[in-house]
Amino acid sequence: MPSRRHLLATFGSLTAAGLAGCSGSDSSGSDTVDCHTNALAHGDGDLLDGGAMAAIEDDDVRLAVPLDVEAVRNQNVDELEVYDAAGELAHVVPVSTGDADVMANKRGVSDGQLRYEQHLGERPFHGQYRVVALDDSDETVDSVTVEFNCFTDLEE
Predict the structure, then answer these.
(1) What is the mean pLDDT of residues 35-41?
(2) Which domains does the chain have, with CATH numbers?
(3) Omega before residue 94 within 30° of 0, cis
(4) What percentage of the chain carries pLDDT values higher than 90?
(5) Which of 2, 41, 79, 136 could connect to 25 by a Cys-Cys bridge, CB 3.0–4.6 Å?
(6) What is the pLDDT of residue 155?
(7) For residues 48 and 99, is the Cβ–Cβ distance under 8 A?
(8) CA distance 33 to 13
């Protein structure tokens, strides 16, 4: 049976995924049990309106990006590029609507949604990342910049 801490973290992640980065720059952030994420800037598109957020799994800090399957299909999204605070390309995450079948059985994913995650490090971990969604022609579809603080494990 999952621990109380695990259940709270899962609930917080689901709630925060819907809140992080919703309305553009300087939007309020989202909190989970262990992390606080703030959206600093948002691109002109609507693909990343669900934002991006830092999440904890065990002691690993992950950058989580929720995407709508239909939006990915309609906008021909092919990959997410993740840039660090220095503007250097840190990660490339392939995106496919075919991933929906696999993700349907994962925690934190709603019907019609994809949730891509990229391991960043172990907590405590703090950072700023810019996520850029590209289509199959390498054109930018949307972007979001977030900063976050993921703290050490708290004692219950």
Answers:
(1) 90
(2) 4-150 (2.60.40)
(3) no
(4) 46
(5) 41
(6) 56
(7) no
(8) 8
Q: Which residues contact 30 (CB under 8 A, 6 or more apart)?
A: 15, 16, 17, 19, 20, 36, 37, 51, 53
Q: Which residues pair with 140 in a beta bridge?
A: 134
- State both tokens at 99: 């991933």
CA distances from 134 to 13, 39, 73, 109, 114 (A): 25, 19, 12, 22, 16
Cβ contact 149:55 at 8 Å: no
**CB-based burial, 34-45: b 16+ in 10 Å, e otherwise:** bbbbbbbebbeb
Q: Provide the percentage of residues in the chain whose pLDDT is more than 70.
A: 73
Residue entry with tokens 């054109």: 139
Q: Is the pTM of this model over 0.70?
A: yes
How far apart CA 15 and CA 36 sit, in angstroms, is 13
